[in-house]
Design brief:
Helix content is 0%, strand content 43%. It has no helices and 13 strands. The strands form four sheets. The chain has a five-stranded mixed beta sheet with strand order 2-9-8-4-5, with no helix packed on it. A four-stranded antiparallel beta sheet has the order 1-3-7-6, with no helix packed on it. A hairpin with a 5-residue loop joins strand 8 and strand 9. The N and C termini lie far apart (90 Å). The relative contact order is 0.17.
């Protein structure tokens, strides 16, 4: 055998991937009434610009009361979009699958909240309907109040007619 000089080779071990740092809709983690559409845009903030988002899935409670999941798709501008109308108001889980140039991959999971209540609007009900019946009256009647995502309720005034037809109102204790 003849001895041959071989040039040194440098190898780099890369087993880490940055992945997706954050998911938001319109600058926050809330899908409000103006953002609910069949093409709701998800903003994915990658940790490393060289990472590639391969797929995005959204799961949550569907409009029919069943668990639902959809695959987000990329539109012509490269935005990840999904049909938010397929879900009821509440928390949705967004999972993003990312790969990098070294072949590393990872799943990241985030929560966004869908609230199709218009900003400044309050929906209230007692017992699941819009009526306070004879069994729901009393000195303390629970009132379910749903507000738009990001809104703050300072007070709730309840107005109506008493049994004699007189206009009455009261401020509910929050």
């Amino acid at each position: 055998g003849t001895a041959v000089d071989v040039a040194p080779v440098t190898l780099t071990k890369d087993t880490v991937i940055g992945g997706v740092a954050n998911v938001n809709v319109g600058g926050d983690a809330f899908i409000d009434a103006t953002e609910v559409s069949t093409a709701t845009v998800l903003n994915l903030a990658k940790i490393d610009a060289s990472d590639t988002v391969q797929s995005v899935q959204v799961t949550g409670l569907g409009a029919g009361g069943w668990w639902n999941w959809v695959n987000a798709t990329q539109d012509a501008a490269g935005n990840w979009v999904f049909d938010a109308t397929q879900f009821v108001d509440g928390n949705l889980t967004v999972q993003a699958y990312t790969t990098d140039a070294a072949g590393n991959s990872r799943w990241d999971s985030f929560t966004v909240t869908k609230s199709s209540v218009a900003a400044g609007t309050v929906h209230a009900d007692v017992g699941g309907d819009a009526f306070i019946n004879q069994w729901e009256t009393g000195s303390w009647t629970p009132l379910n109040v749903v507000q738009a995502a990001g809104d703050t309720i300072n007070s709730v005034t309840i107005s109506g007619m008493d049994a004699l037809g007189n206009a009455v109102s009261t401020v509910a204790t929050l």
